[in-house]
Amino acid sequence: MSKARQLADLGNAYSDGGISGSNLIINGSMQCFQRATAATTMTNTYGAVDRFRGFSNGGGAFTGEKYDMTTSEIAATGQYQALKMLVSTADTSIAASEYYSLNYRFEGDDLQQLKYGSSSAQSFTVSFWVKSDTTGTYFLTVDKLANGQTAYRIPIEYTISSADTWEQKIITVSPTAGSTSLITSSAGAIGGGTGHGLSLYWGFAWGTDYHGTNNTWSTSYGTNATANNWMGTVGNDFYLTGVQLEIGDTSTPFEHRSYADQLQACQRYYSQIAQGAGVCTTTGTNLYLSVKLPVRVRAVPSVSQTGAMTVNDGSANLTQSSASINSYNEGGTLDSLFVSLNNFSGLTANRPVVVRQNTGKSITADAEL
Predict the structure, then answer these.
(1) What's residue 7's pLDDT?
(2) Are residues 233 and 93 part of one domain?
(3) Per-residue model confidence as pLDDT tens digits over 233-262
(4) 3-state DSSP call for residue 49?
(5) Are 274 and 248 within one domain?
(6) Which of residues 229, 258, 287 is at a domain's end?
(7) What is the mean pLDDT of residues 14-29?
(8) 308 and 333, same domain (yes or no)
(9) What is the mean pLDDT of residues 103-129?
(10) Strand, coil or helix: 173
(11) What does the mean pLDDT of the chain come to?
(12) Domain end call among 258, 293, 312
């Protein structure tokens, strides 16, 4: 095969989304909903879809849930799932200090190729598919977190033109937008490590305390433009899928990844564990359990239970009277958990046990940013 033919085939693969690693967003196809698939409140929490969280301050609220695309929607977007958000509590008057948005967070190490903090700082392009019953002005805000450096932000407006219609938005973020040198100076660097280094915000409403200038780096979150205030009416909807961030000033076809790959990437930040092995304590009311995590996590996780667990000690299945768990660091390992499950009765002291998941119940490990 000639070199010209090899290069042509490589170009075709790139155009068809065949080259992996270009999309720096995890779960941009909205494939993974480990926490919940039904409508769940997302007020300052990861309430539904993995890696995307609600970020708000005010009296209003919105929910998130899994949305399965119709055949025609798949044909239009190339995506088969989306995040569906609904206003559950309206806020008709946004106070100066209030804000509502959807947030995605990056580790500092994952964006060092942007070369922020130098004259070689790179542009990047965010593309996504969006649909809403509420048309008008929205904005995407990039927040270059401090993480040991100086925090700078840039809000960029976009418009939803037609109600209830999927539209693709492509937004390029320049390091010198607004003719500023904030990002190309040394203070523009993104702090490295596994800490929070950069955020994206899909803004629904920002109070005047956070207003800034469209497409200009500064210290503000929002814009001076009059947004549509999506939060103003209960039942307003907002759908998002096909989210991609690429280095450079152009957008390429969406990089599709398998569910297995996406889930593994999400489990670096959050996972649910259904079973493990351990030993009963001498009291017979609790047990020590060692759990192997699915992947190495970002940081030592916080551990909780979503419901009572059942164990088998070789003679019977026994269930906790109520969920109660204590977590031990075990030397700061990022690969496994060592926990104590409490509130059992009838355990035989010092006997090995196997823990299994009750329906809908599990141990969770949370290492989110």
Answers:
(1) 45
(2) yes
(3) 999 999 999 999 999 999 999 999 999 999
(4) coil
(5) no
(6) 258
(7) 76
(8) yes
(9) 97
(10) strand
(11) 90
(12) 258
Residue 6 has pLDDT above 50, yes or no: no
- The reply to whether 235 and 289 lie within a common domain is no
In this structure, are 161 and 280 located in the same domain?
no
Nearest CA to 64 out of 205, 265, 181, 238 is that of 238
Q: Are residues 143 and 242 located together in one domain of the fold?
A: yes
| Structure token pair of residue 254 | 């969406």
Residues 322 and 298 in one domain: yes
> Any idea what the Cα angle at residue 153 is, between residues 150 and 156, rounded to 5°?
165
Q: Which of the two residues, 73 and 209, has the higher pLDDT score?
A: 73
Q: What phi, psi does 46 have (nearest 5°)?
A: -85, 90
Contact indicator for 311, 318 with CB cutoff of 8 Å: yes
182-228 confidence digits (pLDDT tens): 999 999 999 999 999 999 999 999 898 988 899 999 988 877 766 78
- 292 and 224 within one domain: no
Residue 8 lies inside a defined structural domain of this protein: no
**Which CATH number characterizes residue 219's domain?**
2.60.120.260
Token couple for 9: 């085939």
Task: Please give the single-letter amino acid code of residue 249.
Answer: D
Domain interval for residue 286: 270-366
